[in-house]
Specification:
509 residues; alpha+beta; six-stranded antiparallel sheet; 12 helices; 11% strand
């Protein structure tokens, strides 16, 4: 390895490691911000929390690598340009492409490693992270109570609250349905307000209820001939305490295969097999719907027309002068009563066919969206890896043009390009899932839009472009100002000539 390659690699690897961990920490903080309400107050051990963060950090690696490469390449070539190292290398006859060669090879290796990581490690880490998060959500059911929805986390109970005070944790208008006897809604408790707390030994949950009543249906023994009276009991209370056992709500580890059917938990081979199976199932459903439509909707309507057609055809064969049979003439041969019945029957057949097509179209559309979800995850394993190369071809020449190192200017530009890439990728993914565009066009849109920009920047940086120099635009604005000034002073073809002397002199002096 030549000294130039060692110098460039040494200048790049340090910022790459630094920016990678910075980006990874930012993504982890974003995750904590999203799930802080579900993690806070759970009494989790540090070991469990560290395992959760570690598994999710592994799932963020393919997303963090492209941004880290973009930021590191900007910093590396920005520092080299700021300290005139690029100028010295170019003056020695070494072109920019030769300077970037070792880094292109390194980033290519990182892209391959990122692909194998996404294909082999990422599915396993996703399963571990999602399973552990699911177990944590089930640990304390009182934390998961949300206003306006039924909560069924506690076995045998269905609880609904109207509102919840986030400061005092007071629950308003509680409805508690006791299903422990598996007899339906035969035992219901309503309270105007209440609190739910975990006991000190964390083996039970105490529900303290105020100003409510309990409704219980009583058992009734009646003969088959006797009418049921449905007896019940209604008890009013000012304060009532209900203890519910939480023996099953300790952090019980679920099998890792709980979410194995999700497309994000599979590798390329599994996704390819599932996509092929889903497409076969989709095609078979389309054929079955087509046969069902022909048999139940078209054939039923045509059967009566064919019978009438044969009857009229027999009459027309007796008349040698009769011409070919026309649908309008066939309808006109019917009596008025039969005409009305035929129209009503035709309208019903059309409505039934329209309803059938609408329902089956919605079913097939949901099937297509499900298939597209698998195709999106299949392509994402390649697009995230290829994004490393795309961002390098943007960051390296842009840093050589800007000639500013550090974390200030490179960080701003990196975030700008990453946001553009992310918006394009997310928009393309949504369009693919809705089956509005092809999978390749949507998933690879960010790559084939930004890659030409990167190659253009490489060309401009190789030719020592000053497109990012502030003085360039200052000189352009100055020339524009002078041009406009000359137009104002000398006039145009449609206006009389105005000289500098009489422009500033009104003729009084």
């Amino acid at each position: 390895m030549k000294k130039l390659d060692r110098f460039v690699l040494k200048s790049f690897i340090g910022p790459l490691i630094l920016t990678f961990f910075i980006v990874l920490i930012i993504l982890i903080l974003q995750f904590l911000w999203m799930y802080v309400d579900e993690l806070a107050g759970k009494g989790l051990e540090f070991k469990i929390l560290a395992e959760l963060l570690f598994q999710f950090s592994l799932s963020f690696v393919p997303m963090a690598l492209p941004l880290a490469i973009l930021l590191a390449s900007l910093m590396t070539f920005g520092n080299m340009g700021e300290y005139s190292e690029l100028t010295a290398l170019k003056s020695s006859g070494i072109p920019l492409k030769r300077i970037m060669r070792s880094l292109i090879i390194l980033v290519g290796i990182i892209s391959v490693i990122s692909f194998f990581f996404s294909n082999n490690v990422l599915p396993y880490s996703n399963k571990k992270a999602r399973t552990l998060l699911y177990d944590i959500r089930r640990k304390r059911p009182d934390i998961n109570l949300q206003a306006g929805t039924f909560n069924n986390d506690i076995d045998g109970f269905s609880i609904k609250i109207t509102s919840k005070d986030p400061v005092t944790n007071r629950l308003d208008r509680l409805y508690i349905y006791d299903h422990r006897d598996n007899k339906g809604n035969v035992s219901v408790t309503f309270a105007d307000s209440g609190y739910m707390r975990i006991t000190q030994d964390e083996t039970a949950m105490s529900m303290i209820l105020y100003n409510g009543y309990s409704y219980n249906e009583m058992p009734e023994k009646t003969d088959a001939l006797q009418e049921k009276k449905y007896p019940f009991r209604k008890d009013y209370f000012r304060e009532q305490t209900i203890l519910v056992s939480l023996s099953g709500f300790d952090l019980e580890r679920t099998e890792i295969d709980l979410f194995k059917s999700h497309s994000a938990m599979k590798n390329i081979a599994q996704l390819t097999h599932d996509i092929d199976s889903l497409n076969r199932r989709y095609n078979s459903r389309v054929e079955s719907y087509y046969d069902e439509f022909n048999m139940n909707n078209l054939y039923t309507g045509r059967r009566r027309i064919i019978t009438l057609y044969r009857h009229v055809r027999e009459d027309s064969t007796r008349n040698k002068n009769a011409g070919p049979l026309i649908a309008g003439e066939l309808f006109n041969t019917l009596p008025d009563i039969d005409k009305k019945a035929a129209l009503i029957r035709a309208i019903n057949v059309v409505k039934d066919a329209s309803n059938f097509l609408t329902s089956k179209n919605e079913s097939l559309h949901s099937e297509v969206r499900y298939i597209k979800g698998y195709e999106v995850n299949w392509n994402k394993k390649f697009t995230l890896s290829f994004a490393c190369l795309v961002f390098f071809f943007i960051g390296a020449p842009l840093g050589a043009i800007i000639r500013k190192g550090g974390l200030g200017t490179p960080a701003v530009i990196s975030v700008l390009f990453f946001v553009i890439w992310y918006v394009i990728s997310l928009s393309g993914e949504k369009l693919v899932e809705e089956d509005l565009i092809s999978t390749f066009a949507g998933m690879w849109a960010s790559s084939y839009i930004l890659l030409p920009i990167g190659l253009f920047l490489v060309y401009k940086a190789s030719n020592d472009s000053v497109m990012m120099n502030v003085e360039t635009y200052t000189a352009f604005l100055k020339k524009t100002k002078d041009y406009l000034y000359r137009i104002i002073i000398t006039g145009t073809k449609r206006r009389p000539r105005v000289t500098t002397q009489n422009f500033f002199n009104d003729g009084t002096n």
